[in-house]
Design goal:
Blueprint lengths: L1 E6 L4 H10 L1 H10 L17 H14 L6 E5 L6 H10 L13 E5 L4 H14 L6 E7 L5 H17 L7 E6 L3 H9 L2 E5 L12 H9 L4 H14 L9 H14 L4 E6 L5 H15 L8 E6 L8 H6 L4 E8 L24 H18 L4 E6 L4 H22 L7 H14 L2
Parallel strand pairs: 2-3, 2-4, 4-5, 5-6, 7-8, 7-9, 9-10
Antiparallel strand pairs: 1-10
Helix pairs in contact: 3-8, 4-8, 4-11, 5-6, 9-14, 10-14, 11-14
This protein binds 5-phosphoarabinonic acid (PA5).
5-phosphoarabinonic acid binds next to loops.
């Protein structure tokens, strides 16, 4: 992964000074690496947790079947966004073009009547054996309305067809939660989440690892990418520590009035990764009237034809992160059908065109003095996505320190959850 920030409106000297102010926290993070799951930051130890990997591996071995076709992932927010990010980056974006590629993940997050009734019809029409599916219901608290309601609906529907389908259910939740206890009582397989690992920091725990392993992804490579990144992000060398550098840039730009962080992604298959980050930044830092970077996700080049004018001509209140990865797939353009309409495309690949557009956009941003940083993933793979996610989760920890907020809680999300429960209980 390459990280560049020369157009970020923060000087080298400011970067260094801010970094030095965070070295005591870097030291604290190094200590966290020795403490298992005792600290709020302990998600940084997940990539190295062999025991967890073995536990997930055992349930995968138990539930894997030769004919597995669908992994129904029921969860919301931190309980599904990370898994969806990895899945969409590697398979999901092209699923519609690969109808015969199995297993597929089907994500059930909000209580959409349309989606749920279509899913029921789909089960009846397309699932012939219980071994073709596995359902993974994920809720850290074990009490999120949407997730519990969706689990009830999905399982009740499946039970109509397969009376013993609870054998195909795996619950992922905090050890000892009500959901955990219910799983124990009913003999349903369950995977724990370390208590101090919050939802949006949990993709590298059983939350993400189980469904991704069931879907055939290389979770060892995912964790490997995160391991290397964790070590870099503990460095006091700002040239190596991208989490520290990026956090300083976001913080400094926020103070200069760039209160929106647009993540402008030039590989559309990474849109869900952008949305995973949107939750991470929004929920971790948006904590006070005067503290909160608003994260947005834009897709290149699609959104240049939608909000490009606003970005290039509108208020200067955004710091942009351009995210791209080289992808040499696709044929060269022969330009025989419509010659002369667009000069310069003959012999070019889709990657050449995307690169040219991204370069053009960066020049246009530079011409208007719009601040930006750049992340280039070498490729789109389990390893590069694991590295990106670890980088961003550690960026959040440094940002929390700089803004003096707790990046691990979400008190106001809890407000809506308890209000909803009151209404449902009237
Ligand atoms: O990041 C978070 O903590 C939240 O977004 C939660 O993941 C989300 O609210 C779902 O909660 P739970 O996993 O308890 O069902």
């Amino acid at each position: 992964m390459k990280f560049k920030y020369d157009k970020s409106s923060v000087s080298e000297e400011e970067m260094q000074k801010a970094a030095e102010g965070l070295f005591s926290y870097t030291q604290q993070l190094k200590e966290v690496t020795q403490n298992g799951y005792d600290d709020d930051e302990s998600s940084i130890n997940l990539p190295f947790d062999k025991e967890m990997l073995d536990r997930v591996g055992a349930v995968v071995a138990d539930k894997m079947t030769p004919g597995l076709k669908y992994i129904i992932v029921i969860g919301i927010g931190g309980s599904n966004l990370g898994t969806k990010a990895v899945y969409d980056a590697l398979h999901g974006y092209t699923d519609i073009l690969n109808p015969d590629r199995y297993p597929k993940c089907i994500f059930v997050d909000t209580n959409s009547p349309t989606f749920l009734s279509s899913l029921s019809a789909f089960f009846h029409a397309h699932v012939q054996q219980p071994e073709e599916i596995v359902v993974n219901a994920i809720s850290k608290s074990g009490s999120t309305t949407e997730t519990i309601a969706n689990t009830e609906i999905v399982m009740a529907e499946l039970e109509k067809k397969f009376p013993m389908v609870s054998d195909r259910l795996v619950i992922t939740t905090d050890f000892g939660s009500k959901m955990w206890k219910a799983a124990e009582e009913k003999g349903i397989a369950a995977l724990p989440i370390p208590e101090k690992v919050g939802g949006r920091y949990s993709v590298l725990s059983s939350v993400g690892l189980f469904p991704l392993a069931m879907a055939g992804f290389n979770i060892t490579a995912l964790l490997g990418g995160a391991q290397n990144m964790r070590d870099s992000c503990l460095s006091e060398d700002i040239g190596k520590n991208t989490a520290l550098a990026s956090a300083i840039i976001l913080h400094s730009n926020y103070k200069q009035g760039y209160v929106i962080n647009d993540n402008f992604i030039f590989n559309p298959e990474l849109e869900s990764l952008g949305k995973w980050y949107r939750q991470l930044l929004g929920e971790s830092i948006g904590k006070r009237d005067d503290v909160g970077i608003t994260p947005t996700v834009s897709i290149g080049s699609t959104d240049l034809h939608s909000v490009g004018q606003l970005y290039l001509g509108g208020p200067k209140n955004k710091i942009t992160t351009f995210i791209s990865a080289k992808n040499e797939k696709g044929n060269k353009i022969s330009n025989k059908l419509l010659p002369g309409l667009v000069d310069g495309i003959e012999g070019k690949t889709p990657n050449d065109i995307m690169s040219a557009i991204l370069e053009g956009v960066k020049y246009a941003y530079g011409n208007r003095d719009l601040p930006f940083m750049e992340i280039e993933l070498g490729d789109i793979s389990e390893s590069s996505i694991g590295a990106f996610m670890q980088f961003k989760m550690m960026e959040m920890m440094y940002l929390g320190k700089m803004f003096d907020v707790n990046p691990f809680d979400q008190p106001n999300v809890e407000d809506y959850k308890s209000e909803t429960k009151k209404i449902l209980n009237k």
